[in-house]
Amino acid sequence: MTDSPQRSLPPPDQAREWLETMTLIRRFEERAGEMYARAKIGGFLHLSIGEEATIVGSARALREEDYLISTYRSHGHALVRGTPPENVMAELFGRVDGCCHGRGGSMHIFDASRRFMGGYGIVGGNLPIAAGIALASDYSGRDEVTLCTFGDGASNQGTFGETLNLAALWRLPVVFMVTNNQFGMGTSLSRHSAVTDLRRKGESLGVPGMRCDGMDVLDTHAVVSAAVEQVRAERRPVLIEAITYRFRGHSMADPESYRSKDEVAAWRERDPVPSFGKVLLDAGVVDESSLAEIDAAAMARIDAAVTFAEGSPFPDAGSLYDDVYVLGESSRGWYSVETTEERSAGAEGEDPTHAANDEISQQLTSALAAGEDGGEPSGAAG
Amino acid sequence: MAEMRYREALGAALREELRRDERVVLMGEDIGVFGGAFKVTEGLLDEFGEKRVRDTPISENTIVGVGVGAAMTGLRPVVELMTINFALLAFDQIVNHAAHIHYMFGGQARVPLVVRMPQGAGHQLGPTHSHCLEAMFLQVPGLLVAVPSTPADAKGMLKTAIRDENPVIFIEHESLYGVRGEVPDGEDELVRFGVARIAREGSDVTIVGISRMAQTAERAAATLSAEHGIEAEVIDPRTLRPLDLDTILASVRRTNRCVIVEEGWPHGGVGANLAALIGEQAFDDLDAPVQRVTGADVPMPYSKPLEDIAYPHEPQVVAAALTTFGRSVPTGAAR
To answer: Is B302 in the A-facing interface, judged by CB distances under 8 Å?
Structure first.
């Protein structure tokens, strides 16, 4: 698969936390699948089972102030950034305590306070947005990095070429990570991409490529960490290809006629969660009983998440028009024929969820006021 | 007050907002070194530098998307697209992302982004550079849609757009860039969204003109007065979202007649929407069916005589107004 070198383990607490988070994502996704089968969850449900090492290894390469932006397969990305599983599950249930108050659902998870910037349903739609986030960081002289993940299918979208070119031209601090799970929905890599060595797809656009073993959290973390620090220092984007595999269908509505059971079984031999558990066991970081404890704790947390989601009410019908617009001084209402000024005014109020966004603006304003208008300049000239 | 051209008024708005707010950043194809395809941004690169006035590759969807991401994280981007037809390449970022992010993420993110672009026929640019597509944007909840028709509105509304917390589709008109008009001085002279402009008062028939057609409607009103003794009230809504329906309905309730003039296509157009709203809310006040004057239901042709008859002119507006009085005059116009 990849000729990755033997990677050393992080400190025991950190290694254990990675395993805990991978296990939490696995158990969350399994339970979400069950809840979908029981019609507690509607729409489409895209699970990350098999991709936990890619998610945890890459996200743990980030600082808290760095941004992470993902796709419609993003429950794990929210969890790894610290969004409580209760709020993610409640979002899947369409409840008011969901992280997007039931507006987005599975494909549109978001947590501004933890700098998880979504959750996007359009393949390739998040790439330009990632470049814009990186532009704002750069513009205000902050050295944050944006990690933008997307699937192998997205590497065929126009936004892939457009955004990599622009990010290289403007020297934007973005780590693009293509999560190559071997399929764009039901079309295998070799049937959807003329170049299957995906890390090379950025070369003609000025974006150098790297590869990691996305089934191995240690390798993923090592490669992404190096990339993140390189991007932070050099202000130039890179493209990482994480080789992984999703064990479940594209979504729950997938008969999986495009691949064989043998193929899935072969990949399951390399299941990233038990594999990493065994690495930690062999290294003496955990013993059998603590492995069982980690799993039991994850199960208990997911039980609590389901209980929380079931207990959370559906959004009130009166909230239907909330947050279509931000209402303000210069534009106070009657934006659509169904929404009168009175109704809009009633829908406004100070919503605590705005706080995180305001905070970002305030940080930017203070950075600009302090004269940090570029340090290393934005690179528009370059 | 100073007299300036529509394009200069837009440039002045950008310059003042760039000076006022460090977070304002301009992006677009050829807006910097070239000075803008229609010279709206001329001189801004020299004054503000390449960090704030950014020439982009020809990548419309990505340019708008970069604006979305930057807006979500604290900047106030103003993206210029060279014509409204090119905005179709960016429809994914405009509709699926800019318009929906605030709602779909439960209010956690805002997209204070302006996307500016010109529209309109009259320059023989054929079927990919000449259309009026405001109705396509009008349909999308989450967007604000501005269609200024005078230099004063161009400036005051662009400043409002930049200061607003929502994504604004700011639609200029190619044939208006050279038009002169009085523009109020002062960097805080804003034109509030959702307030229609009564361009001409009158008591006999209400004529609603969209974008450049507000000016066509004014000329038609002068003809109606001079040649037919009809005093038309001309209303320019200025923004289609928010829509100042109250002002339009109040006028229709006085005049009992209404003509809507737009350059875009007839089916599902601005006029179709407005006629439905008037029918629903002021049916009993109408003495005649609402008349629409629209662009022809064709891709815009190149050849001058064909192009000329493919979008509305003053005689068709006069004829439509007369129709509401049961009078008719031959116009030879295509519909």
So the answer is: no
Chain B interface, best mutation among A320, A331, A332, A357, by max B CB count within 10 A: A331
Query: Rounded to an integer, what distance in angstroms lies between the CA atom of residue B252 and that of residue A327?
Result: 28
- Tokens 């509607």 locate to A42
From the list B115, B187, B133, B111, the residue with the least C-alpha distance to B155 is B187
Instruction: Work out the minimum CA distance from A212 to partner chain B, whole angstroms.
Output: 27
Residues 6+ apart with CB under 8 A from A121: A72, A107, A108, B96
ipTM over 0.90: yes
Question: A130 CB near a chain B CB, below 8 Å?
Answer: yes
B247 touches chain A (CB under 8 A): no
Indicate the pLDDT class of residue B221, thresholds 50, 70 and 90. very high
For chain A, the domains span 12-311, 317-372
What is the reported pLDDT for A349?
Answer: 39
| Neighboring chain B residues of A360 at a CB cutoff of 8 Å | 73-74
Element of type H or E holding B233: strand B232-236
Whether the CB-CB separation of A306 and A86 falls below 8 Å is answered with no
- Taking residues B254-270, report their average pLDDT: 97
Q: Inter-chain contact A128–B62, Cβ cutoff 8 Å?
A: yes
Q: Taking the CB of residue A290, how many other CB atoms lie within 10 A of it? A: 15
Domain covering A12-311, topology: Rossmann fold (3.40.50)
Query: Looking at the annotation, which residues of B are catalytic?
Result: 60, 129
Element (H, E) at A367: helix A354-369
**Closest Cα in chain B, distance from residue A308 (Å):** 19
Sign of the torsion formed by the C-alpha atoms of A131, A137, A139 and A143:
negative
Are A99 and B73 in contact (CB < 8 Å)? no
Output the pLDDT for position A335: 55
> Is B72 at the interface with chain A, CB within 8 A?
yes
Phi, psi (rounded to 5 degrees) for A90: -65, -35
Cβ-proximal residues to B176 (8 Å cutoff; 6+ apart), any chain? B6, B120, B149, B154, B211, B212, B215
In chain A, residues with a C-beta closer than 8 Å to the C-beta of B246 are: 334
Identify residue A325 by its one-letter amino acid code.
Answer: Y
pTM for the model: 0.92
Does B106 reach chain A within 8 Å, measured CB to CB? yes
Minimal-distance CA residue of chain B relative to A102: B106
Dihedral (C-alpha) B259, B261, B266, B272: value to the nearest 10 degrees? -50
For the packed helices A52-59 and A217-234, what is the interaxial angle rounded to 10 degrees? Answer: 40
Chunk chain A into consecutive blocks of 10 residues (it has 382) and report each block's average pLDDT, rounded to whole numbers: 72 98 98 97 96 98 98 97 98 98 97 97 97 98 97 97 98 98 94 96 97 98 98 97 94 89 93 97 96 98 98 95 81 47 41 41 47 35 30
